[in-house]
Design brief:
Keywords: Cytoplasm, Fatty acid biosynthesis, Fatty acid metabolism, Lipid biosynthesis, Lipid metabolism, Magnesium, Metal-binding, Transferase. The protein is an alpha+beta fold. It contains four helices and five strands, in the order βαααββαββ. It has one domain (2-115): Alpha-Beta Complex (Ribosomal Protein L22, Chain A). It is globular and about 40 Å long.
């Protein structure tokens, strides 16, 4: 059963310009393993975290570092969640999170399905 769906898009150049103006933003938004990637990959991960929040009902209590996008076998992205994100997922009865990322034509996008 689908519990929630989230989608988000991010203009890569605009996102990266914001990062260059506020470098500490990377530390605030991303875990150590997510930092240092190419701008389009960072923008896609930002969109993913926004999409995940939407799929979980967008409570204001989710911490950015409690969700990490990880590359799995063959480059397929998946989530590692903990803390506030894991608690919210458990509260909703989420058994599995699906994630799709893309970036093209200057835009990064992410789609998340929370399945119970």
């Amino acid at each position: 059963m689908i519990i929630g769906v989230g989608i988000d898009v991010c203009d890569i150049d605009r996102f990266w310009a914001t990062v260059e103006r506020t470098p500490r933003l990377l530390e605030r938004l991303f875990t150590a393993s997510e930092q240092g990637l190419a701008p389009q990959s960072m923008a896609a991960r930002f969109a993913a975290k926004e999409a995940l929040a939407k799929a979980l009902g967008a409570p204001g209590t989710l911490a950015w570092h409690d969700a990490t996008v990880v590359r799995g076998e063959h480059g397929r992205p998946h989530w590692e969640i903990q803390g506030s994100v894991a608690a919210r997922a458990a509260e909703l009865g989420v058994a599995r999170l699906h994630l799709s990322l893309s970036h093209d034509a200057g835009v990064a996008s992410a789609f998340v399905i929370a399945e119970g």
